[in-house]
Structures are given as C-alpha cells and as structure tokens.
Write a structure and sequence with these properties.
alpha/beta, Elongation Factor Tu (Ef-tu), domain 3, Rossmann fold, five-stranded parallel beta sheet, 13 strands, binds flavin-adenine dinucleotide, binds adenosine-2'-5'-diphosphate
C-alpha cells in the first residue's frame, strides 16, 4: 500500500526504524481473485482475538474520501477454524464501497470491525436429518463458511447446497469450493457422500435451469435429488439471497410446515439477507 494512503500513516524515520501507525481494526489483504466483472473473492489476515461462529457476518470497509470509515456488512466465507478470513463480494459499479474495494491487491489494508453476528448459525436450527443451504448470488458466502465447518457434517446425514445465479460463470466460486472439499485435509472425509450440490442458472443455458423456488414448487428439486419433499420432522434449511428471494422461499418453507428460528429460539429454518435494497 502506498505510504500516503489514508489507511496507513508513516512517520519520519527515527534512530531505529520507521514507525508505522495503522488504524485500529486494519487487516492486510493476502490474496484476491476475480471471477466475473460482477464478482470477486479475497482473503485477509485474521485478528488474533477474533472468534466467530461459521456463517456469521462482520462489518468491513475502507476509509472514505471524507476520512471516515466506509463500512458494509459482509458474511465471512471462511470457516471458524481458518487462520485467515475470506470474503466473496459483488462489484456494484457506482457502489460507495465496492467501486473501490474491487481494486484491492495483496498487501493493501481493509478495515474489519471484529464484532461477528448473524442468524445463519448452527445454534439457531434444531437437529435434523437433512440440511438445505438455499442461496442466490453472493448469498452463497455464509454457506462457503458452513460447508467447511465440521459441525455441519456432525449434525446432519445429508447436506444440500442450492445456488442459483443468472449465468454459468457466476457459479464458479461455489462449484470450485464444493470440488475442493473432497480433498480438504480437515473435513474431506466427513464430507464424503453427505454433500449434494444443486446449481441452477436463470439467464444462460446450463444443465439445470430455473429459479430454485420454481423447482421446489414443481417438485423437480426433490425428483432430481431423489429425496422426499420438505418435511418439518427431518428437514432444516438456511436461506441467503436477495430480499425478494428470501420472502419467496420463506413462504414455501412455511407452507411445508417448517418454522423460522433465531439464535435465542432454534427451529427448522433461518434466513438472512445477502444485501439490502433490491427494490422490494
Ligand atoms: P451499496 O450502496 O451497499 O449497494 C448498492 C446496491 O447494490 C444495493 O441497493 C443493491 O441493489 C446492490 N447490491 C449490494 N450488495 C449486493 C450483493 N451482494 N449482490 C447483489 N447486489 C447487491 N455483499 C457481498 O458482496 N458479499 C457478502 O458476503 C455480503 N454479506 C452481507 C451480509 C449482510 C447481513 C448484509 C445486510 C449485506 C451483505 N452484503 C454482502 C452487501 C454489502 O453489505 C454491500 O451492500 C455491498 O458490498 C455493496 O456495497 P456498496 O457500498 O458498493 O453499495
Ligand atoms: P432471475 O434471473 O429470474 O431474476 P441477482 O443476480 O439479481 O441477485 O439474482 C440472482 C439469482 O436469483 C438469479 O438467478 C435470479 O433469477 C434469482 N432470483 C431473484 N429473485 C428471485 C426470487 N424472488 N425467487 C427465486 N429466485 C430469484
């Protein structure tokens, strides 16, 4: 990062060494990967004191032009045991944060407020047989964490990840993550045979087309996977996508008899917005 960057102030060299004063809560970017012109992922150093539950989100950001931190909510996409933190991000062309954040490079610093919260956590759902992760777009981020969390496979016999995006390229992050799990030294053996991956696209041809809500309504999802329809006795679900998606899928889950839970009141499903403001 350049010496004059607003996030890193450098003082004149003293007798011993330059004193580098870093903002509180600054973390260093260790890697960045761009997937499409709308999506990228990056990893940053993890504060030694940060404890979180897989699936939670934190506030991250950069210094704004006005000299104040510009922060947004981000799901931590890495699991609680990882020594670094991973994030999966949208690029909003005129977005106050992501128009800048999309240009970060290894060595740059971001601000990370170490106060994790969220409802997409194991504590908020009751034990069951089958756990569904229903996601659209960057809503896969909390599940990228939970898919690498041993508790997910300890608590459930079957884990089903659905990810719906506009086009095939937007599925890449999730597909590569799922493919990597089998060889993961920590959880590879636990995942074996338990994880089912169900990607769909809505605006480009792919082997499975359609909104997941439609595929639930017409029964195609269950037919393709060879599992019974949603059942409150056996099935649990976590949902993360746009507000419109969350509302629609919540209605389907409730119609099937599942009840929404919370940290203080675990039940059959939990929901969290992947972002705010989609015109609904
Ligand atoms: P903003 O002013 O925040 O947003 C501008 C517009 O861009 C919004 O009105 C919306 O229409 C659209 N938009 C914003 N975020 C998204 C998105 N993720 N996908 C599609 N359209 C979007 N964003 C991530 O990229 N990754 C995450 O893991 C993530 N986790 C979140 C968790 C929670 C609980 C919440 C509430 C939001 C989360 N977001 C996430 C959204 C994030 O907080 C910002 O909105 C996003 O980074 C864009 O910031 P911005 O300042 O550039 O634009
Ligand atoms: P569609 O292309 O039919 O709108 P986005 O990139 O706009 O956040 O959307 C991500 C994916 O979520 C798209 O495939 C989109 O389908 C789908 N989607 C958006 N709204 C809903 C909804 N209410 N129910 C189900 N899927 C939705």
């Amino acid at each position: 990062m350049a010496p004059n960057d607003p996030m890193t102030e450098q003082r004149p060299v003293t007798q011993t060494a330059a004193i580098k004063i870093t903002l509180p809560d600054a973390q260093t970017v260790t890697s960045v990967r761009h997937y499409t012109d709308r999506l990228f992922a990056f990893r940053v150093t993890r504060p030694a004191s940060l404890r979180f539950r897989s699936g939670e989100f934190v506030m991250i950001g950069l210094m704004g032009d006005n000299g104040k931190p510009l922060l947004r909510a981000y799901s931590i996409a890495s699991p609680a045991w990882d020594e670094e933190l991973e994030f999966y991000s949208i690029k909003v062309p005129d977005g106050p944060l992501t128009s800048k954040l999309q240009h970060i490079r290894p060595g740059d610093q971001i601000i990370l407020r170490p106060k994790p919260v969220g409802t997409l956590v194991h504590d908020a759902i009751l034990p069951g047989k089958r756990l569904y992760f229903f996601s659209t777009g960057t809503g896969i981020a909390p599940f990228a964490s939970l898919l690498r969390e041993p508790e997910t496979y300890e608590r459930f016999d079957e884990v089903i990840l659905t990810h719906t995006c506009r086009d095939v390229a937007e599925l890449t992050y999730g597909r590569e993550l799922v493919e990597s799990l089998a060889d993961d030294p920590l959880i590879g053996e636990m995942v074996g045979g338990k994880l089912r991956y169900y990607p769909t696209t809505t605006r480009e041809d792919s082997p499975r087309m359609g909104r997941i809500t439609t595929l639930i309504e017409n029964g195609q999802l269950f037919e393709d996977l060879g599992v019974p329809p949603l059942n409150p006795e056996t099935d649990r679900a976590m949902v993360c996508g746009s507000l419109a998606f969350n509302i629609d899928i919540k209605a389907l889950l409730e119609m099937a008899g599942l009840e929404e839970g919370a940290n203080s009141d675990p039940r059959q499903f939990v929901v969290e917005k992947a972002f705010v403001g989609d015109g609904v």
